[in-house]
Amino acid sequence: MQQKSASAPSPLRQLGWKPFFQQQLSLDELNDCVPVRVMAVHRSQIEVSGEEGEEPVLVNGSLFEDAAEKPTVGDWLLLDRETRKPQRRLERSSLFRRMAPGAKQAQLIAANIDNVLIVSSCNNDFNLSRIERYLALVREAGCRACLVLTKADLSDNHEQYTDALKKHRDLPLILVNALDPTTLEPLRDYCRNGETVALLGSSGVGKSTLLNSLAGQVLAATSGIREDDSKGRHTTRHRALYAIPEGGLLLDSPGMRELGLADVSEGLAATFADIGKLAAKCRFADCAHESEPGCAVQAAIDSGALDERRLRNWQKLEREVARNSKTLAETRADDRAFSQFVRKVVQEQARLRKSGEE
């Protein structure tokens, strides 16, 4: 039998297994359990992959009862070696979630992402405020980010898009034609062996086409866009991880035009650090940056150093994060109160049964 090369990475390493996760295992778990990664989530089951390949796991048991904590795509689980039932979820290195419209709980998007490609397109669907929203989410998670402009072959004026992103020159900016493999080479650094990459962007910007081109095969369906507004159709129906030839993993997710933010204060501050520095110079600590005297932010707008759109988007996202974070905190408090009530009822019933028996 031909022996495997000592330098060949293990299946777990290719799936993104790192010391961060290894260190969380106890000696008993090393003997009794196997780690697997969640590759896709469906209504009744999840698909996981590990040393022994892919297998389905039924969505039942205590691990799946809490909507805010249940496993999501990218999570690492420990399965019992014999029963193949999930025992627990490992602590996450990063987590992406959103507040869906009208929801009181956050919806999990993906976990344990290393790099994020924030994808927009060189057409009428380009939206700088939406990109800033994605950046706040990515920076809160602490992931490595790259800005990607697709459909470069359909535009003769790339400068209008690259100039709009000049406030984010600390981030790599790559123009690509997803059907031209040579333009994708700079992206392969983010898809190295053992790295997990997420593609974030609205429908129609070319995420699925980009995924297929990087993978060298058709992994996700694609479709055209509406000619009147350059908006796309949802070709991806659910989030899933795909292995690519370089050994990395790519997350393909449905386009999310509604990406409500909550608990991302640090990410928001990092995304709008320039406004934060200006606000610190305002005469009044509680300056609303409207018409107050000595407002450094308004002075920057008047001089052309700051775009008023950027200020308005920052203020909008600040209000949204505060509102959604408050909603989440209230929901958690209600859940804790209900759990305490249930425990008291159970304890009282047990006490009454014991008294009756005596």
Describe this structure as you would to a colleague.
This protein has helices spanning 11-14, 19-22, 27-32, 128-141, 159-164, 207-215, 265-271, 273-279, 296-303, 308-357, and strands spanning 33-41, 45-50, 53-58, 76-80, 86-89, 95-99, 106-111, 115-121, 144-150, 173-175, 196-200, 240-243, 249-252. Helix content is 32%, strand content 20%. The protein is flat and about 85 Å long. It has 358 residues and is of the alpha/beta class. A six-stranded mixed beta sheet has the order 10-9-8-11-13-12, with helices on both faces. Among the domains are: 11-89, SH3 type barrels (Roll), CATH 2.30.30.140; 95-252, P-loop containing nucleotide triphosphate hydrolases (Rossmann fold, 3-Layer(aba) Sandwich), CATH 3.40.50.
Write the layout of secondary structure elements.
Elements: H1 11-14, H2 19-22, H3 27-32, E1 33-41, E2 45-50, E3 53-58, E4 76-80, E5 86-89, E6 95-99, E7 106-111, E8 115-121, H4 128-141, E9 144-150, H5 159-164, E10 173-175, E11 196-200, H6 207-215, E12 240-243, E13 249-252, H7 265-271, H8 273-279, H9 296-303, H10 308-357
Parallel strand pairs: 8-9, 8-11, 9-10, 11-13
Antiparallel strand pairs: 1-2, 1-4, 2-3, 4-5, 6-7, 12-13
Helix pairs in contact: 4-7
